[in-house]
Amino acid sequence: MRVTILDHPLVSHKVTVLRDERTSSPQFRALVDELVTLLAYEATRSIRVEPVTVRTPVAEARGVGISRPRPLVVPVLRAGLGMLEGMTRLIPTAEVGFLGMARNEQTLDIVTYAERLPDDLTGRQVYVLDPMLATGGTLIEAIRFLRQRGADHITCVCILAAPEGIDALEEGVADLPDVDLVLAARDERLNEKAYIVPGLGDAGDRLYGVVD
Ligand code: URA
């Protein structure tokens, strides 16, 4: 698995404001959107393109277009939804699928409660959006699910990750080639409740408010 951590002062600045507990939900959503657009730039570095020719007012120009089948963007509900606009802004022709996964807070097991994806992902590049890579359980499940459907290149886009989650993910997908991880920051550790420290709290709650 290739891990890329964005090293840019604007990214660090936006992550700092995201972390701040005084940042309101509307501000938080706007910042996630901006950060994901920056992450998407890096995450799509190996997006497949094919040669195309266009006519400028002056002459013919050779360029590239995004290859078919179209890339698929998959936000992991609920918090991944806050990352969707930022990603599709950069690849507006991508298709979008949804995976609903949640962690059972007692057992920490991952439960898939919703899925809306094409049955056949053969030859697809897939971008999985999940802001917080904590234990790694959700992303391992998501990657295995997508791979079973035929996805051949999977890039996970996260905002924060715990070192424990990165290690677990590396181990959990060690047998799978072509998995990339793009992050805005790698944090210190997980706490006993599997929250990222210092982190930013519950990303879903900060985006959308607390739902019991
Ligand atoms: N999910 C979150 O939203 N925050 C964490 O710190 C860990 C998992």
UniProtKB/TrEMBL annotation:
Pathway: Pyrimidine metabolism; UMP biosynthesis via salvage pathway; UMP from uracil: step 1/1. Residues 6-209 form the Phosphoribosyltransferase domain. CDD domains: PRTases_typeI. GO terms for molecular function: GTP binding; magnesium ion binding; uracil phosphoribosyltransferase activity. 5-phospho-alpha-D-ribose 1-diphosphate binds at residues 78, 103, 130-138, 202. PANTHER family: ADENINE PHOSPHORIBOSYLTRANSFERASE, URACIL PHOSPHORIBOSYLTRANSFERASE, CHLOROPLASTIC. This is Uracil phosphoribosyltransferase. The gene is upp.
